[in-house]
Amino acid sequence: MKIKTLVKSLALTAGLAATFASHADFLDFQVDESPYGGEVITADKLNGGFTEIITFDDEGGFMVSAFASMNQLFGNDGTANSSQIGSVIGANYNLYATFTATGTVMTPGAMGSNSSLSAQTGSFTLYLDPEQDTSALDVESLTLSNNSDDLVLGSSNSIGSNVGLLFGFGGVFDFMFNEFELTQQGDTYFVSPKPFYMFVNVDGDFDTIPLEGQQTITGDVSAVFIPEPSTLAILALGLIGVGATRRRKC
Question: Which of 47-61, 98-112, 136-150, 210-224 reaches the highest mean pLDDT?
Fold first, then answer.
């Protein structure tokens, strides 16, 4: 991707994210790592990477599935890494997430785009892998290996405001999940703030792709907490697939 188109794409990503989280700010949260050889630590951001499969049908629909590794915790407004805040994530245990969505494609698209995507259904689930041995055998079906001992920390099956915009030089998307709820196991990991509520905001930036067949995209994932009425967190997939998109035929 050329510098000019990269800058344009990043600007679109920033603008789209601002639409959904206009007052985002870092907010401290605490996780209890004592079962994994650590202690209760204070952080303000999770970070990692993901692989995503987008499948387009011949009738204007699409389906998304993704597997995301989230093995970095940051503090001090995102400037202090895991070791600096005393975290053992990535060394003694792993976090990962799965994401799905289905929806429709419109051409020409919204907001001056060539085409736009809108999701009607979706899900997001966050897991803890104590043995650090889980991997995705197949991202499209979200078939995982060695996950029988993993802990479900929380999930959402309620997708809210969302949009994907494809332009001539690339695209951006932003899918937001509502009503993310911790499980009992998640409540013992995320120990502060209480109560713990989340909006899950999946957004990104990708190279131009044909709206047909299967597309494989890779990118970065990060999560920060924001002070909102009845909402304490936002999870964002960022800079998705810059220069890393490839096409696979059905």
Answer: 136-150
The answer for residues whose C-beta is within 8 angstroms of residue 221's C-beta and 6 or more apart is: 46, 47, 48, 49, 50, 68, 69, 70, 97, 235, 236, 237, 238
Q: Which residues, in sequence order, are CB contacts of 157 under 8 Å at separation 6+? A: 122, 123, 179
Tell me: pLDDT of 248 over 50: no
Distant-in-sequence, close-in-space partners of 85: CB < 8 Å, separation ≥ 6? 41, 42, 43, 73, 74, 75, 76
Q: Break the chain into its structural domains and give their ranges.
A: 3-248
Q: Note if the bond before 108 is cis, omega within 30 degrees.
A: yes
Confidence of residue 39 (pLDDT cuts 50, 70, 90): very high
- The answer to whether the beta carbons of residues 50 and 65 sit under 8 Å apart is no
